[in-house]
Design goal:
This protein has 15 helices and 4 strands. With 351 residues, it is mainly α.
Length: 351
């Protein structure tokens, strides 16, 4: 069950985006390898999924590489369990093993209810996110640390190729952090491409995620993202002068290179996949501030600031302030691609 063959099966659902099929294939192929290592077997077909009880036990009970405060291996979070069950259910449904798929679906439904129940009680952070949560002020300080680290390496008189790669990585991170700080969203920023506004307007139906560059205007056009089928294309104006300068400068470099993606892997020169955002963010935040901060936690940190102010305004019956922060939350919900109801249920907390 290699990734390529799995993706062929997932692609049978034509209404689903290719990036989602790729994510499902990656997740299921990884699970097959981990489960095979655990069972000391190599699974080349889906038949092992027939032992749903054992597979479910592995998904829900097998410890991860992460450890708790006492140094003991952690069990996977409910969100991780759901993330592993979903592609199994989708795969079995597509090969018409509906009864077997239902065995897994029964467990997923319970986990879904647990997650929703936790959110409704105001626990919008997973255990791992709680450990890595920082304040908005700390987030701003972290951006300063990125600048300091970038300057430290750039000022080296003699640089190795690893130093050069690190400079590029930190420049990418600096751009990503400012982009997410001002326009928080999901991992789809990894696949952004530059396009001139004239060329963009010629597109009948944009298929990719773009930074649209005009002489007076710069904006994001996001078409390929998790909830696009429900919310459609997301258009976001960029007004921050520093961010606009970063983007224009990078576009000049890409034009000279004859390339159009914003982000490329330093070793292969290939454009990023969505996974690169989480990798580069968590790796560097761990190194610089001892916290693992990916795009989801970053979103929660950013909107928590607005959420706390919004909740305070409601408690104090300050309607003007409540309207102000509700508009900010509304803008963030639109940028991320979900409703305000979901935002306030899942992401905004008094904690």
């Amino acid at each position: 069950m290699d990734k390529a063959s799995l993706k062929e099966v997932f692609a049978k659902k034509v209404s689903r985006r290719d990036t989602t099929n790729d994510a499902y294939a990656q997740r299921l192929s990884s699970l097959v390898k981990k489960y095979g290592k655990f069972k000391e077997e190599e699974f080349k077909s889906w038949e092992f999924l027939k032992d749903s009880k054992d597979v479910i036990q592995f998904i829900t009970e097998a410890t991860t590489t992460r450890k708790d405060k006492e140094g003991n291996p952690k069990k996977p979070s409910d969100a991780t369990k759901i993330g592993n069950l979903t592609p199994i259910i989708e795969y079995l449904t597509l090969i018409e093993e509906h009864i077997l798929a239902e065995n897994y679906m029964k467990v997923k439904k319970i986990l879904d209810d647990k997650v929703i129940g936790a959110y409704q009680k105001g626990k919008s952070l997973t255990e791992n996110q709680e450990e890595n949560m920082i304040s908005y002020e700390d987030l701003v300080d972290y951006m300063v640390k990125i600048e300091e680290e970038l300057k430290l390496i750039s000022d080296k008189p003699l640089k190795t190729h690893l130093d050069e790669w690190k400079i590029i990585e930190l420049e990418y991170l600096r751009l990503l952090m400012r982009l997410y700080l001002l326009h928080p969203s999901r991992n789809e920023y990894a696949t952004l491409k530059f396009i001139n506004i004239r060329d963009y307007k010629k597109l009948k139906q944009p298929e990719f995620n773009y930074v649209v560059i005009g002489s007076k205007k710069v904006y994001l056009s996001i078409t390929d993202y998790k909830t696009s089928q429900k919310y459609g294309r997301k258009l976001t104006d960029i007004g921050d002068k520093a961010l606009i300068k970063m983007l224009r400068d990078l576009k000049k470099t890409r034009d000279i290179e004859g390339r159009d993606y914003l982000f490329y892997y330093t070793k292969t020169g290939e454009p990023w996949s969505n996974y690169a955002v989480t990798t580069i963010m968590t790796k560097n935040s761990k190194q610089l501030i001892g916290k693992s901060i990916g795009s989801t936690l970053l979103y929660k940190i950013i909107i928590q600031e607005a959420g706390i102010n919004y909740n305070d305004a409601l408690k104090n019956n300050d309607l003007d302030k409540a309207v102000k922060y509700n508009e900010i939350l509304e803008k963030y919900a639109k940028t991320r691609g979900h409703s305000q109801a979901i935002q306030k249920l899942v992401y905004v907390t008094d904690k």
